[in-house]
Design a protein that fits this description.
Elements lengths: L2 E2 L2 H21 L5 E7 L3 H17 L2 E7 L5 H13 L5 E4 L9 H7 L11 H9 L8 H12 L8 E5 L6 H9 L8 E5 L6 H5 L4 E4 L17 E4 L3 E4 L7 E4 L4 H4 L5 E2 L6 H21 L11
Parallel strand pairs: 1-11, 2-3, 2-4, 5-6, 5-7, 7-8, 8-11
Antiparallel strand pairs: 9-10
Bound molecules: NADP nicotinamide-adenine-dinucleotide phosphate.
The site of NADP nicotinamide-adenine-dinucleotide phosphate has 24 residues, from α10.
Length: about 300
């Protein structure tokens, strides 16, 4: 039976370190500040924003939640982003995805001050990830995956990592992060997607499989080799009449069968999910730290 990688426990560890850093910053007169903009009333987005806000309060961060109606125009939204860009009490800004359809999300992301782009989606931060410039912001879920592996003492260097999915939020950045030429990277990375041939053949050659495709329980026992490490990023709703809410959450991995073959595995929920919020908090603290230092780069430790 695989060892369970407990994302909540690792996230708690991250918070212990962050509390210390936040206290240090406050002693210098800086309270890290995060602004979260939510446009519209998508229930899942509202829930994510609430948990981000709650965590800011628990850590003693300055937190601003701006809820705008679904009818908000592109121009109005750009104006609100610009206010936060200029606000020196705010070090991190995120616009909860997805915005309503009439909003050009890419243009909104480009309007963020890249030094405050704690989601790591601005082209300047994407370039910094490719260039291995540690002053940039890496998207939170990939950072969380890397941290889970490191905290679980799983050797990344030299390992063959197969990433399922090539989105800009998970697949591409996690591949770039784990192949970086530093002590927290150095993996040999293969990325597969919906057009890949003989996917099972490729995933069976992996030491570490990272699944981020959004297909409920897609990855089965015969997709992995005995003893592989398996990280499940997927969050999928499947109908479950036995539950009051009528559904339950499952990952992209068929947990019951894969956990009998893997050496370590993340559960859903309670694996990658809690790490995403922890890394958002870590990125906000990093933004505040860099603000104090006037934007000077950090060492590439992956923190
Ligand atoms: P996305 O933008 O929809 O991308 C999905 C990727 O999976 C695409 O690259 C797609 O290939 C690939 N794919 C789809 N079906 C496939 C198949 N049958 N075989 C191989 N590849 C396939 O999704 P995302 O935003 O990256 O999210 C992926 C999953 O992670 C979702 O369940 C999402 O809810 C979850 N997620 C979780 C967190 C967290 O905090 N835990 C954060 C973000 C996302 P093509 O490029 O060829 O279309």
């Amino acid at each position: 039976m695989a060892k369970l990688i407990d994302g909540r426990a690792v996230a708690e560890k991250v918070y212990v370190d962050l509390r210390r850093e936040i206290a240090d910053l406050k002693a210098k007169g800086i309270t890290p500040g995060l602004a979260v903009i939510l446009v519209g009333d998508n229930p899942a987005s509202s829930a994510y924003v609430r948990s981000k806000n709650r965590m800011c309060h628990e850590l003693g961060l300055h937190s601003v939640k701006l809820e705008l109606p679904a009818s908000t125009t592109q121009t109005e939204l750009l104006a609100r982003v610009n206010e936060f860009n200029r606000d020196s009490s705010i070090h991190g800004i995120l616009v909860q995805s997805p915005p309503p359809e009439h909003i050009d999300e890419a243009a909104i992301v480009r309007s963020l001050d890249p030094r405050k782009d704690v989601d790591g989606f601005h082209p300047e931060n994407v370039a910094k990830l490719v260039l291995e410039d540690a002053s940039g912001f890496v998207p939170c879920t990939p950072l969380g995956v890397q941290r889970l592996l490191l905290e679980s003492d799983i050797e990344i260097s030299g390992a063959h990592v197969v990433v399922l999915g090539r989105s800009m939020i998970v697949g591409k950045p996690v591949a770039l992060l784990l192949m970086q030429k530093n002590k927290n990277g150095n993996a040999t990375v293969t990325v597969v997607h919906s057009r890949s041939h003989d996917l099972a053949h490729i995933t069976r050659s992996a030491d570490i499989v990272i699944a981020a495709i959004g297909r409920a329980e897609f990855l089965r026992a015969d997709h992995i080799r005995e003893g592989a490490v398996v990280i499940d990023v997927g969050i999928n709703r499947v109908e479950d009449p036995a539950r009051q809410r009528g559904y339950r959450l499952v990952g992209d991995i068929a947990f019951d069968e894969v956990s009998k073959k893997a050496s370590a595995i993340t559960p859903v929920p309670g694996g990658v999910g809690p790490m995403t919020i922890a890394m958002l908090m870590a990125n906000t603290v990093k933004a505040a730290r860099q603000f104090v230092r006037g934007g000077s780069p950090e060492s590439p430790t992956g923190d």
